[in-house]
Amino acid sequence: MLHALAVLLLFSTVAAQADTPDGCQPDQTPALLNGFRDIGDLLGSDTVGVPLDCEHSNPQGAPNDTTQTTSAGAFFYYKFNNLVVFSDQQSHHWATAHDGIVTWTGLQPFPPEVGSTLHPWASLTPGQAP
Predict the structure, then answer these.
(1) 60, 93 in Cβ contact below 8 A?
(2) Of 8, 53, 69, 101, which sits with the fewest C-beta atoms within 10 Å of its C-beta?
(3) The pTM is what?
(4) From the first residue on, what is the mean pLDDT of each consecutive set of 10 residues in the chain (130 residues)?
């Protein structure tokens, strides 16, 4: 009887872990936080969808880069330039700039260069597709 109880407890724990979305604690519900929430609020839920997991380390990024998947795409945080990007995972991208949102199309994950400024996207007009 004790053995059966231990097996049941083990399977319950494994099942609970399997139901926990990536990057989330067992009792945590996926939500947009910090910079992801900021750009999500600006773009709206029709564009960014709803979170499917919690912000977590980006295995394809540099150390300290993070990502979060939504029903409409994914958010990316790039620590080296403190850039938050939302992508529909096809060809549309949005990023925060000092005065709003910049957008671009294409496969490159960063806004195209404009001039030779340190942060070239800062000189784009919010909402302007380069």
Answers:
(1) no
(2) 8
(3) 0.72
(4) 46 55 92 95 95 93 92 94 91 85 88 48 40
